[in-house]
Amino acid sequence: MAKITSKPHALTDKPFHYCPGCTHGIAHRLVAEVIDELGMEDRAVGIASVGCSVFTYEYFSCDMVQAPHGRAPAVGTGVKRARPDNIVFTYQGDGDLAAIGTAETVHAAARGENITAIFINNTIYGMTGGQMAPTTLPGQMTQTTPYGRDVKEAGNPLRVCEMLATIEGTALIQRAALDSVKHVNEAKKAIKKAFEYQDEKLGFTMVELLSTCPTNWGLSTEDSLQWLRDKMIPYYPLGVYKDIKEVRR
Amino acid sequence: MADLAINGDSAIALAWKQIDPDVCAAYPITPQTIIVERFSDYVADGEVNTNFVCVESEHSALTLCTASSSAGARTFTATASQGLAYMWEMLPITSAMRTPVVMAVANRALSGPININNDHSDAMAARDCGWVMIFAENVQEAYDNAVMAPRIAEHHDVQLPIMTNIDGFILTHAVERMTPLDSKDVKSFVGDFKPLYPLLDWKNPVTHGVMDGPEYYYKHKYQMVEAMENAIKVTEKVFKDFKKISGREYRLVEEYMCDDAEFVAVVLGSSYGTMKAVVDELRAEGKKVGAIMPRLYRPWPDKHMTAALKGKKAVAVLDKHAPIGAYGALYADVCTSLIDMKDAPAAYNYIYGLGGKDATAKDFRTIFEDMLAGKAAKYTFMGVDE
Questions:
Q1: What is the phi-psi region of residue A129: left when phi exceeds 0, alpha when psi lies from -120 to 50, beta otherwise?
Q2: Per-residue confidence of chain A (249 residues) as pLDDT tens digits?
Q3: How far apart, in whole angstroms, are the C-alpha atoms of residue A89 and residue A71?
């Protein structure tokens, strides 16, 4: 029988450690497929972050560096400045990119570093067990907001794409989701475009992927996907927030 | 209150609930996270009046806490490992501003390599930042230290921040039997925070955190040194007062079977329990051995340690951190207490338990066997397979 699909070469054989129903696996596969399709594996360097994605370095077969919490864009900058022809991507969750690492994210973008951030937004700190993140939705229950996020006390969720789109140094800022085939396909196109823009040295690129955390949300896989659609997408609208080629046109 | 089956993190959160601090800010980090999770439950349920802030990093947590303490609020936070390292810029600022912040530290190995398990590399790297530091052997002591901490830190002769250290996972997550105090006893024991020169005193405006030139910087530092020395007497008094409400007696330097001991081991934290079991075992075999734990680690209880070690033949000092290019911090401290002693015991340094490596009674037994056989070396990095 003819083989119609296979694991991307850019992924190792190591089974993912992620919880059942978590969309990290889809995000990993998309990044790996893009690396395969663009033939970039021999010059890609990934930056693993802190959080559930700390073990990202186990799953991508390209070179990887594990960064301290929030520092992935700074690490990526160091690698990229030393090896400008390499393709450098960070893989960070919202606890990393949008909390402790906000400054690094904003300033890497402001300097227009030619790196790509893959941003997993699941509205919660996953690895530490489900506490409120800056991206937690108003009213969302977490370990540190047991009766829901009170925006009067904890402020409103941070919309990272909208924020970064205002920065001159960015080339592509796009939000996609991993809840359906349609959205997953869009997400892959966005990641591919980000890597291509990086290769063209157009500036900082980021693809935000709205993701699920069934374990910490306390929902089934299916309900998590529905929650993403019903709750997350209205607050975090999908789309292209900045495309330097569109701006120039 | 009835005894509880509780882990160390939850026991600390319970103590905090009974104290009801004014402000708490923290960022989750394993293995501290349970403290702030439980505490945020108390906040959400209205069981405390604390203003709880979920900040975006540990650096912001301690910065916020230092500021709220200087504004006159009793302020608590908690962290571990990288979180403590990320707070480092603020650690000596918090102490220099004389803001008695209380911080629980769930001791965990510092990166790198990244590791989430227990050792003392986080606390030891922060040991000279002007914070009072106490350690706990078990969950009961984690709770008791949390109750006593504000009394030590906020005393006007001290006015320095305090770290209450507990071994990550071994104490933070393990469930033990613990006898809590009545909330009203905790309340009256801890009393009100009476800051000396708080902000927002409209009639007496003050400026905090000002720049010092060489002349004042020197004096400022000396005041901190004096305040830290005062913490010895203050802590002893707090231990004494605590016995009255709890019946539990603590000493700055704990000794186990040391009176007639010839060979002793000095160790910090939960390993003290293991060491006591080894001492029991060897005592049953007729060996004159004992164990020592400096419950108060900063300020270093110099005289108390000297007294504990007087007349011993040899002392093994166990350090649960990797001193790269020097001897262990605890070993160096113990050696300073031996310097003026006539016929001081021989002192040996053992490095153990890094990054969560098991430290068993069997391992500790070999330390005494080394000393008894006259085979102990000045420096031993235990458990490395070459």
A1: left
A2: 888 889 999 999 999 999 999 999 999 999 999 999 999 999 999 999 999 999 999 999 999 999 999 999 999 999 999 999 999 999 999 999 999 999 999 999 999 999 999 999 999 999 999 999 999 999 999 999 999 999 999 999 999 999 999 999 999 999 999 999 999 999 999 999 999 999 999 999 999 999 999 999 999 999 999 999 999 999 999 999 999 999 765
A3: 13
HSE, side-chain direction, 13 A CA sphere, residue A160:
37
Spell out which residues of chain A touch residue B37, defining contact as CB-CB under 8 Å.
Answer: 129, 131, 143-144
Task: Give the phi and the psi of residue B105 in degrees, each rounded to 5.
Answer: -120, 120
The answer to whether residue A203 neighbours chain B at the CB level (below 8 Å) is no
Chain B residues touching residue A70 (CB < 8 angstroms): 57
Distance from CA of B61 to the nearest CA of A (A): 11
> Would B4-246 and B253-381 be classified into the same CATH topology?
yes
Contact B32, B113 (CB under 8 A): no
DSSP H stretches of helix in A16-85: 24-37, 56-59, 72-82
Question: Once rounded to an integer, what is the mean pLDDT over residues B328-337?
Answer: 98
Chain B residues whose CB is inside 8 A of the A143 CB are: 33, 37, 40
B253-381 classified as CATH 1.20.1600.10: no
- pLDDT at residue number A248: 64
Nearest chain A residue to B112 by CA distance is A68
CB distance from A54 to chain B under 8 Å? yes
Q: Is A70 on the interface with B (CB under 8 A)?
A: yes
For residues A47 and A63, give the distance between their C-alpha atoms in angstroms, rounded to a whole number: 9
Residues of B with CB under 8 A from a CB of A: 27-30, 33, 36-37, 40-41, 44-45, 52, 54, 56-58, 82, 86, 111, 114
Listed by start position, the domains of chain B span 4-246, 253-381
> Looking at this predicted complex, what is its ipTM?
0.89
CATH top-level class of A24-248: alpha beta
Instruction: Give me the residue from B41, B52, B56 closest to A100, CB to CB.
Output: B56
Topology adopted by domain B4-246: Rossmann fold (3.40.50)
Neighbouring-strand partners of residue A118: A91, A207
- The answer to whether the CB atoms of B44 and A102 lie below 8 A apart is no
Q: Where does chain B have alpha helices with state H?
A: 8-19, 33-44, 58-70, 81-86, 91-96, 121-125, 139-154, 183-190, 214-246, 271-284, 302-309, 329-338, 361-372
Give per-residue pLDDT as tens, B15-71: 999 999 999 999 999 999 999 999 999 999 999 999 999 999 999 999 999 999 999
Residue type, B304: H
Which pTM does this prediction carry? Answer: 0.94
